[in-house]
Amino acid sequence: MATATLSPSASIPQFTITAEEIARYAELTSLLTQLEKQKEQLRAELLELHDDGAQQEETGPYLLAFTDQERRTDWKSEALSLAAQLYGAEGINTWKLQIEQAAPVQAITSIRVKPNPSFAAGVVKSAAAPTVMKKPVASARSGISAVTATQQ
Known about the structure:
Blueprint (H helix, E strand, L loop, with lengths): L18 H33 L23 H28 L14 H4 L19 H12 L1
């Protein structure tokens, strides 16, 4: 995939993503990963208990609804099977490549957390934060911050 680097224009203000925002994003990402893992482990335990005929306590605010669903078709497998019938085992990779090349390109920005080597090496001090120009954001967070600031 080709990427282009645009030079910043003098007329466009340059905003900064703060170290606090980066740290908060990293913390939340880590927490979500941990919670997803815990949820999957608990789900497996609950399904096993349900399959063994366990009953639910009805004293709490929530109950679990176990709904059995039947899935009959794995469409990816079906498409690959059909492609194998049409193009043969050798032709599947060519078919997949043609499909991928013919599909429209969708720009998706992913955000991944990575360590800051300058910070780890002690080159950058967290207390020496530069003056930051923040872009106005119409979010609940900025609304809460504005209310808190006016109350103080």
